[in-house]
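Section 3.1: Structural characterization of target chains.
Under the original work plan, the team committed to producing a structural model for every single-chain target entering the pipeline before any wet-lab resources were allocated. The record below documents one such target. The sequence was received from the expression subgroup and is listed exactly as submitted; it comprises 430 residues.
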Amino acid sequence: MMRTHYVADAKHAVGQEVTLAGWVHEIRDIGKLKFLLLRDRTGILQVTGKTGTTLDAVLDAMVQVKETVVQVQGTVKENKIAPGGLELSPSEIKVLGEVTVKVPFEVTGKVPADLDVRLDHRYVDLRRKETQAIFRIKHTVAAAFREKVIALGFQEMVPTCIVAAATEGGTNLFPVQYFERSAFLAQSPQLYKQLAVIGGMDKVFMTTPAFRAEKHNTKSHLNEVLQMDIEMGFADHEDAMEVLSQVALHTLMRVRESHPEDLATLETELRVPSNIPRHTYGSIVDLLNKNGVKFEWGEDFSRETEEEINKLLNEELYIIHEWPTKVRAFYSMPNEKNPEICNAYDLMYRGTEISSGAQRIHLPDLLVAQLKSRGLDPDSFSFYVNAFRVGAPPHAGWSIGLERFTMKICNLQNIREVAMFPRDRTRVTP
């Protein structure tokens, strides 16, 4: 191994000889003293060379271009005035990777760089402490989702990403040439997780990419996203909303517990409520109109409207349910007492929808009628509709957008910040 310890482990190795490896973050030369700040994914440690006590060859090796990759061997010592209270007294320094071109921007953040420049050189941007904080948090969001749904008895599945027809209706699909026929990248794993429940798996979850060929250019949309989905059989929307609430609260708790330093780096606080309140779509429409925001029942909420709702409710996390049937996906189960509304719901966080779900239609004749009412050809969904003809249980589910949830947790304004290699209308590299 090229290292015995990470920087964060140095506090447990005072007085010991260790080998660290990482990037040169900063260099300072003040005559008899030379300082090299060594950075790895866990932090930064000061390497201190002193004329007369440090070998001349080591002192010479400490003068490197910033972002050079080095291996440093030495003894960990306490130093109250050093960053973190520790320093490394070096006995050997090796260059593992030279910098042979100009680094496109300042990793230390002393000189701000535009987001587009950073994304064009994401492999450098990932070295920034803010960017690393984002992706550590994103990792925990995905891990906490998995942890909670497994604890609740869900089984992981892996759906296909290549489909023969639109999975959610509409035409915003990326076509692919699939041998002698046409196919598409999946908009959603929706139909396939339902088929798994119909097949008897009962409670399933997945983290899977979804592709949407929508020509938008907003700060909250991407054309490739990661979805964290569940589907549960012998259940209705009330059951699914309860699971959604448990997962969301568990995820926020895990991030708050695990990342106090990262949240501080991103200059945001994370509050975890004791429960998630629920509001009907109708009550939200009434609230808007009572406060001077004209809104017609039956419309979908725009981003601007969602922000206004957030201000009026003054709640960071809440569910909106009982949506108009016409504005939801064709497979959303209409309410038994009032078919004009359906058993669908959205989870809102910090003014943005981060999850959407519903009880699904499990009755084939009703499903065909809903397809026709949306102008969709039932024949194109025959494999899907026919699955319900062999005995399908009532079921419900939801999807959380991993990037969008992470964006709001980190209190960021652009979803591209939380996608390691974002894909939007113009960006397909790196």
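The CA atoms of residues 31 and 66 lie 19 Å apart.
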